[in-house]
Write a structure and sequence with these properties.
CATH topology: TIM Barrel
Order of helices and strands: EEEHEHEEEHEHEH
GO molecular function, one term: carbon-nitrogen lyase activity
CATH superfamily: Aldolase class I
Bound molecules: S-adenosylmethionine, ligand 2KA, iron/sulfur cluster, magnesium ion
Keywords: 4Fe-4S, Iron, Iron-sulfur, Lyase, Magnesium, Metal-binding, Queuosine biosynthesis, S-adenosyl-L-methionine
Helix content: 10-25%
EC number: 4.3.99.3
Number of domains: 1
Radius of gyration: 17 Å
Strand content: 25-35%
Subunit structure: Homodimer.
Largest sheet: 9 strands, mixed
Pathway: Purine metabolism; 7-cyano-7-deazaguanine biosynthesis
């Protein structure tokens, strides 16, 4: 299978439990909860997306003809260091494209594989670190993993129901929007009410990283 990748870059994981870790990010093109076009945002299932995932024209992006080609690009981007090789598959929605061949090729290249997914498609069982970020109004089928990252606030979210899901970590991330500061305050209030949850901030945005 070929893969449509918007951009591919080296940075630090900015979000979640593994925030601060050196990682290659592969941002797959396309999402099943929004077309990515501004004129469709108001009618999309997911309306707060902070990301351009349309097309393959970003830095390091392109159409990769097969898993070996994409794994080679990830490896080149990481560099020679053999230890702690770490790749984050994101998007758009990565589970629209991630398959056995890609998971095997990345593992063969020595990478630990993380995913950032909206959870509407089952995560590939070979992925080593599963982060699911549920979207109100969508049907989440992937209800287990390493971290559940709830962007807050989202009207229509049943937080009690989310707490029944099988995640090792429950994180709340303020929604980046015009109401950003208020969103941070309400996220803090959620954590103060519910000790099981922890606050995570999008540190890459504060640090000027991608
Ligand atoms: C762009 S999404 C791509 C992966 C996948 N489609 C998903 O939604 O999880 C990457 C992460 O950014 C989060 N995110 C998107 N827009 C955001 C915003 N405006 N504020 C805070 N987090 C946001 C998502 O919830 C997700 O955890
Ligand atoms: N530095 C950095 N960390 C991230 N963690 C999750 C991201 C994403 O867009 O999936 C992201 C991102 O876009 N940049
Ligand atoms: S599901 Fe993820 S990529 Fe898709 S629109 Fe929402 S935040 Fe953006
Ligand atoms: Mg991002």
């Amino acid at each position: 299978m070929s893969y449509a990748v918007k951009e591919l870059f080296l940075t630090l994981q900015g979000e979640g439990v593994r925030s601060g870790r050196r990682a290659v990010f592969v941002r797959f093109a396309g999402c099943n909860l929004w077309s990515g076009r501004e004129q469709d945002r108001a009618s999309a299932v997911c309306r707060f997306c902070d990301t351009d995932f349309v097309g393959t024209d970003g830095d390091g992006g392109g159409k990769f003809p097969d898993a070996a080609a994409l794994a080679a690009a990830v490896s080149d981007c990481w560099g020679a260091e053999a230890a702690e090789r770490y790749v984050v598959l994101t998007g758009g929605e990565p589970m629209l494209q991630v398959d056995d061949a890609l998971v095997d090729a990345l593992h063969d290249a020595g990478f630990e594989i993380a995913i950032e997914s909206n959870g509407t498609l089952a995560a590939h069982p070979g992925i080593d670190w599963v982060c699911i970020s549920p979207k109100a109004g969508s049907e989440v089928v992937q209800r287990s993993g390493d971290e559940l990252k709830l962007v807050w606030p989202q009207a229509g979210t049943d937080v009690d129901a989310l707490e029944e899901w099988e995640f090792a970590n429950f994180l709340v991330q303020p929604m980046d929007s015009e109401a950003g500061e208020e969103n941070t305050r309400t996220a803090i209030a959620l954590v103060l009410e519910r000790p099981r949850w922890r606050l995570t901030l999008q540190s890459h945005k504060m640090l000027g990283l991608r």
